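User: Predict the complex.
Assistant: Input components as received:
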Amino acid sequence: GAVVSQHPSRVICKSGTSVKIECRSLDFQATTMFWYRQFPKQSLMLMATSNEGSKATYEQGVEKDKFLINHASLTLSTLTVASAHPEDSSFYICSAPGQGSVGYTFGSGTRLTVV
Amino acid sequence: GEDVEQSLFLSVREGDSSVINCTYTDSSSTYLYWYKQEPGAGLQLLTYIFSNMDMKQDQRLTVLLNKKDKHLSLRIADTQTGDSAIYFCAVPSGAGSYQLTFGKGTKLSVIP
């Protein structure tokens, strides 16, 4: 079935640095990728929708300049957390509509800790 | 927009059945989903139901859909310790939408 590979799975960075998270669709082309953020004991909050070859669509309240999304190819979408601060610490998950199948395929998530 | 509600916790004894409930507001969704999330992991599609069905059974899993009441449930028969996880109900955010709206998740704890 469709697989989305997400890296890294865990990252610890210092406050003020930038972190890049990658999501790759391994055996299908993902023209659309969704980026979610999950707070402890809470549901997934959609941050933005990335579209291959065009600008991402951000949800209300999500800072475009802090959460930079690039969808440069049909198999790769990246989320860069710019100048990360401790409040950006969270679990980030990407998802793509499954090609030829019902449902959406999720990456395994990235646990970001900013110290 | 779509609003999806589910209870936050459920505790059952091993071998018993678990029933996780979900209510939603938008009735135009074609598919409704249940996802499972184990600690520190991403989401795994557990099962789904098409909106013109009222029941779907898949081994130990039974999904019931009451479109009139906008109520979705997931029943896990013979619950095992390996079923301990957070279960999310997810509904597309409007007709033809790729975006999903998730409930807050129900944490299922299985007592040996």
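The interface with chain A takes residues 8, 31, 33, 35, 40-45, 48, 88, 98-100, 102-105, 107 of chain B (CB under 8 Å).
Let me know if you want any component modeled separately.
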